[in-house]
Amino acid sequence: MTAVGTRHGAAGPPDRAARRLRPLLSSVLRAAWRVRVHGGDVIPRQGPAILAANHTGFLDGPLLYSVVKRPVHALVKNEMFTPPLGWALRSLGQIPVDRFACDMPAVQSCLAVLQRGGLIAIYPEGTRGSGTFEQTKPGVAYVALRTGAPVIPVVGLGVRTSSSVDGLPRLRSTIDVVFGEPIETTPIPWPRRRHVVRDHADLITEHLRAHVRDACALTGREVGPVRYQQPLDPS
To answer: Class of 16-160+169-219 per CATH?
Structure first.
């Protein structure tokens, strides 16, 4: 695995600010909402892993960042990387990605993090929406097949209380973050045929959808309807 060509240099995105600010962000979010974490012990204390999370609202990223006790480097749409927010995101080790193209610098940044034993977070749906993994992209499968890093399903429930993807949950309402059993992957060396990546992506998607059902059963909640969903491609 190589980190050449990353947007953060060969070492990948930084960890230091993420380690320092996570407790502060966690305190702020827990002061505003009642955050319950289920199954967090599946996250390894060390070593690489891919968090594959559903995406229903604005809080998904900050929430995941705050509840995981290790630095999380998430793929964030590149439209967010404008000053001053862009500076903050880069300082916290987040990775800009072009959602509408094959963004190899973003992929290489992910590989660099995993190579040094870190955590990355990818939202396979590619945008905020239903949170049920109805539509997914193959990026998680590609990175998993390149590295052999386990894929950990993550479902957030209560992240919004309206049907709008732009909505926020009511203050002091309950938010559940449910982690699932890791999906183990055997790395496949080059060449990786497109159909192999697609088949593994389909397998991961099945696991993610099953985890949504399990998370809803565990918490007695539903993901909820969505009134507006951004398209996965420009057309």
So the answer is: alpha beta
